[in-house]
Specification:
Protein name: Prepilin leader peptidase/N-methyltransferase
Keywords: Cell inner membrane, Cell membrane, Hydrolase, Membrane, Methyltransferase, Multifunctional enzyme, Protease, Transferase, Transmembrane, Transmembrane helix
Radius of gyration: 20 Å
Number of domains: 2
Distance between the termini: 41 Å
Number of helices: 9
Main location: membrane
Strand content: under 5%
Shape: globular
GO molecular function, one term: aspartic-type endopeptidase activity
Catalytic activity: Typically cleaves a -Gly-|-Phe- bond to release an N-terminal, basic peptide of 5-8 residues from type IV prepilin, and then N-methylates the new N-terminal amino group, the methyl donor being S-adenosyl-L-methionine
Order of helices and strands: HHHHHHHHH
Number of strands: 0
């Protein structure tokens, strides 16, 4: 069952990754993600169905448009493959649990938001704001757990975690507005829902890890002369990575820390 779940999740992730390529390109431009159909940005020819198979089509076409022969960025198959791998790893980590749909949704928006933030230094409301109700519904399903014992305390903790992390980032922006934007604040609320659902340790370490990872990256850029003190560095990807760390390792590390003192 678990192997089949991992394989199925990976295949779904490949398809979702193909869609995320569209999201990453169109959402920052305010375009619809469903119409018109995907087309080559250079020659304008619509992409045929057989040329839209994740990863495989890019390999068959040798990374070039069938119509005009212009190169197709390798980022497209990498996003598809990366999303497939992340979906598979998530299914492997959770197993057949009701929290899996919630985490797969988080993985999908994380890929899209990280790439958009790197490209444009923005975290679009079109993705972040709908994630609040979606996350609450999916985490409520996980708390209900139709095939096992319900855990409504986890849902209450999620709601508190979302409010707390939103408030912490909101205060941070007020105190140091040059450090981050309100897009980060809105994303913090979504991540707080997930981190709170997994536990207070996950919430604390997920928040802390984001600043550690972002700080290390900023220092590395400064040391290599690739950024200055006033350079704008997207913080969204580090928030997402920090949340992933908190979800996976936060509670065990928190329990170990409390036990050691």
């Amino acid at each position: 069952m678990s192997a089949a779940l991992v394989l199925l999740s990976g295949l779904v992730g490949l398809a979702i990754g193909s869609f995320l390529n569209v999201v990453v390109w169109r959402v920052p431009r305010g375009e619809s993600v469903v119409h018109p159909p995907s087309a080559c940005p250079r020659c304008g020819h619509a992409i045929r169905g057989r040329d839209n198979v994740p990863v495989l089509s890019w390999l068959v076409l040798r990374g070039r448009c069938r119509d005009c022969g212009e190169p197709i960025s390798p980022r497209y198959p990498l996003v598809e493959l990366g999303t497939g791998v992340l979906f598979a790893l998530t299914a492997w980590w959770t197993g057949p649990e009701w929290v899996l749909p919630a985490l797969l949704y988080l993985v999908a928006i994380s890929v899209a938001l990280a790439l958009i933030d790197i490209d444009t230094h923005r975290l679009p409301n079109a993705i972040v704001l709908p994630s609040y109700p979606v996350a609450v519904v999916l985490l409520a399903l996980a708390s209900w757990n139709p095939t096992g014992d319900a855990d409504w305390q986890a849902l209450v903790r999620a709601l508190i975690g979302g409010a707390v992390l939103y408030a912490v980032y909101f205060v941070t922006v007020l105190v140091y507005p040059a450090g981050m934007g309100f897009g980060d604040v809105k994303l913090a609320g979504v991540l707080g829902l997930y981190l709170g659902w997994f536990g207070w340790g996950a919430l604390a370490l997920g928040w802390f890890a984001a600043f550690v990872l972002g700080g290390v990256y900023a220092v590395a850029l400064l040391a290599r002369g690739r950024a200055g003190r006033k350079s704008a560095i997207p913080f969204g990807p580090w928030m997402l990575l920090g949340a992933a760390f908190g979800i996976v390792a936060g509670e065990p590390l928190w329990t170990w820390y409390l036990g050691s003192i």
